[in-house]
């Protein structure tokens, strides 16, 4: 059965979510430029988790079928959306699973709304500082605003030793920008620093915490290292042959998620 699109008002922004299954609630948060389908459904992860839990996937503001404002309504508002989604669903607390940007949202929700979170699992994400990669996000914001391109970000995420060609950049940009609004993504980039966390904030986390990271993920590896250092109770899974993008393609990823949820349920 196909999950039905649902919507709720999150502090003035209309957000879309879908849900299916029964049991303890699990909220899924996708990465930057992605959406529910291209973050979870297409990889069969939504269905796999839904066999065991009440799985809820959110289109982040500025993404997917959620509204895409161009103003300064991102940053802290993005993890506030998680708490407002739980309020809308009358859910006291949930397990959080976030990929990349969604991991930043999940980690911040865990820090700022600890009573609402049962456990947290980060995929291709970790404990990024507020001032990390500030130049990158400034360059990305300018690129999206002026020419509608993600090139600065794609060059950083590119896992090959050789830099991508202009043809490769154009192909990746076309794929990642499909269905996206460049000015909304630029607005997300403008406030991305607000998704950074401090050492003290990470150390304050008491709930179960796990990070799954590709061994070839040059971008998020340092953040994963920091997470496990600052939160000693966190567990970690390194995935061989996976980079920032290909982690979602690994068939064992769904098993890792379900196994962790079963351990902490």
Automatic annotation (TrEMBL):
UniProt domain AB hydrolase-1: residue ranges: 25-251
Classification via InterPro entries: AB_hydrolase, AB_hydrolase_1, AB_hydrolase_fold
Top-level taxon: Bacteria
A Pfam match: Abhydrolase_1
Gene3D superfamilies membership: alpha/beta hydrolase
Protein name, UniProt field: AB hydrolase-1 domain-containing protein
Organism: Blastopirellula marina
